[in-house]
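Hi,

Apologies if this is the wrong queue. I'm a grad student, and the batch job for Chromosomal replication initiator protein DnaA ATPAse domain-containing protein from marine sediment metagenome produced an output file that my downstream script rejects. I'm not sure whether the problem is my script or the file. Here is the sequence I used:
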Amino acid sequence: MAVREVENIFADILERAKALDPANARKWFEKLTALHLDGGLLGVGCPNEATAQFLRDNCKSSFTQAAQQVTGHLVTVDFSVDHDEKSPRRSRRSRPGLKLHPDYTFDNFVVGPSNRLAHASCVAVSQSPGNTYNPLFLYGSSGLGKTHLLHAICCEAGQKFDKAVIQLLSCEDFVNRFIRAIEKGNLAGFQSQFRTVDTLVIDDIQ
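Support response: The file is valid. Your script probably expects a header line. Output copied below for reference.
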């Protein structure tokens, strides 16, 4: 999910939580940030551990209710200290040219009845890229974990096949590259850059 989209959704969740718990809103809700929202998990960043612990003990119910009302889905809320002033957390670079969100792994994905098949399919792809479910297409509403699973595929495949060429890009980036190739009369170059890729992952196809 795009950073701006997460921020907008979290702003709505925060306003709803303030309405549900006005007694704690002014003192405890002002400096909260969205760390991530994917796979049915909302990560809320807090300025310090004291705030995080207070919210865990006293406000988890109101935040959970607010998140589920705004997204229309079952959501688990987790409060932790935001060590990065920019949220959601910046992606780490696991290998040259590949930017992955540090939290988007299979271990961190919340598996349930509605996403069990998608999760199992992505795990299978990561274990045998290019052979299992080729191509694999994930479809679903925003906030259900599609981006999380795509990053997890890249992370797992990268660890298992250290010499594999893995490329993750947005659909917009893919289309822009294609348009530039047409403008420059270099379709052959566009095709060659993807023919040498072992695992190609395209996110956010509209």
